Amino acid sequence: MRIAIIGAGYVGLVTGACLADFGHAVRCADKDPAKIDALQRGRIPIYEPGLDDLVARNMAEGRLSFGSDLCWAVEGADAVFIAVGTPSRRGDGHADLTYVYQAARGIAQALKGYAVVVTKSTVPVGTGDEVERMIREARPDLHFSVASNPEFLREGAAIEDFKRPDRIIIGVEDDSARAVMADIYRPLCAGHAPLIFTTRRTAELTKYAANAFLATKITFINEIADLCEMVGADVRDVSKGIGLDTRIGQKFLDAGPGFGGSCFPKDVSALIKTAHDHGTSLRIAETVAEVNERRKRAMSRRVIAACGGSVRGKTICLLGLTFKPNTDDMRDSPAIALVQALEDAGAWVRAYDPEGMEQAALILNEVEYAGDPYEAALGTDALVLVTDWDVFRRLDLKRLRDGMRWPIMVDLRNIYSSTEVEAAGFLYTCIGNGR
Ligand code: UGA
């Protein structure tokens, strides 16, 4: 099949590269000429494990190409995927659909024959209807369909998620679109990934419901972690104990500093707004958003308490800045609120992150950035583990401690066990362990 992808951001690149790898001919367009220039020269603008090799291989084999002209990408395509950004609109928390509608207008002008226009970006319920209306208004005689095919990719594991999905959700309103979408995903169906066809609006809502549910699960276990500390229980065992019940499931029950990233906070907020627009409210989602924001700010109080009640004039070492490992993404990372609160409380912050320091420096400009974890910890008064990168799981604890002024460790990801860290001479606190 011939496929066009509009937007060479995170979702567009992963989708384009994976669909090309299935054997489809993929043209990917982005209006940023610098990005296209870099991609054409084999440079990937984001950090995603395995993506550079996948892009390079499919480019070399002639199935994947990049350009800045939308008409070139759309020409002869059986399906055109809209994979542009949908940031939170400033002020009201709604999803900003400017780029989606711009893409729809461009596609309307460029289409020469039948194609399925597919929204891949996370878009509020009803966006597919609006995209269809816009194209029909611009091109009343054109035969086309609009489908919704939300992505469920986790940053850092996106290629695996695309190639081995739990399910593929496709919202269509007609048989032609259904047939094209079934052909596109046929290579995955051989691997028995369930293809769920539904209506466009249902598909759009399913994406938000999935993210809001996962965010709820995390927030629930975070609150249980706080309670564990008060009643003398251990949240790790509670997670295991409830997660082994297959109705609950073990995933997304790791207590931590609160969820961040470019999806959960934005999508929970957009879902809340959709409910308001329809005259109702999603009280659980509203509470999740509020509790999570409060939690991110509250993490600084843990560090201050571990330092004996004040961090004024002290230097705090942060290991990990990104919202999760295997990404360079700093958006809505719990590290941001933590650094700001520590600096407000009079501390100096020194930090190390394997991939995120370039992005972090754009937001957190008072922080001193170090070349490795040991350099970051040298001479500091406390060490805070913020992101659970694998490299932080096998630190030489004794070497770390020997370099520090005070051997205090605050583990916000429960990477270590207290026995191990205390044996290395640290005073250790983690999340949700009241024993
Ligand atoms: C999330 C979803 O997991 C994807 O399915 C979805 O496609 C994507 O959003 C999206 O809408 O595009 P992502 O934001 O990349 O993916 O990251 P997650 O791995 O879901 O983690 C989100 C946040 O939750 C991170 O801050 C992470 O540290 C936190 N988290 C996750 C926890 O605190 N505890 C957990 O048990 C799991």
From TrEMBL:
Catalysed reaction equations from the record: UDP-alpha-D-glucose + 2 NAD(+) + H2O = UDP-alpha-D-glucuronate + 2 NADH + 3 H(+)
GO molecular function, one term: UDP-glucose 6-dehydrogenase activity
Listed transmembrane segments: none
Top-rank taxon: Bacteria
Pfam families membership: UDPG_MGDP_dh (PF00984), UDPG_MGDP_dh_C (PF03720), UDPG_MGDP_dh_N (PF03721)
Entry keywords, A to Z: NAD, Oxidoreductase
SUPFAM superfamilies given in the database record: 6-phosphogluconate dehydrogenase C-terminal domain-like (SSF48179), NAD(P)-binding Rossmann-fold domains (SSF51735), UDP-glucose/GDP-mannose dehydrogenase C-terminal domain (SSF52413)
Pathway: Nucleotide-sugar biosynthesis; UDP-alpha-D-glucuronate biosynthesis; UDP-alpha-D-glucuronate from UDP-alpha-D-glucose: step 1/1
EC number: 1.1.1.22
Active site: C263 (nucleophile)
Positions annotated to bind substrate: F152, L153, R154, E155, K207, F252, L253, D254, A255, G256, G260, K324
Residue intervals of the UDP-glucose/GDP-mannose dehydrogenase C-terminal domain: 317-418
Residues reported in the UniProt entry to bind NAD(+): D30, K35, T86, T122, E155, K266, R331
GO biological process, one term: polysaccharide biosynthetic process
InterPro entries xrefs: 6-PGluconate_DH-like_C_sf, NAD(P)-bd_dom_sf, UDP-Glc/GDP-Man, UDP-Glc/GDP-Man_DH_C, UDP-Glc/GDP-Man_DH_C_sf, UDP-Glc/GDP-Man_DH_dimer, UDP-Glc/GDP-Man_DH_N, UDPglc_DH_bac
Similarity comment text for this entry: Belongs to the UDP-glucose/GDP-mannose dehydrogenase family.
UniProt protein name: UDP-glucose 6-dehydrogenase
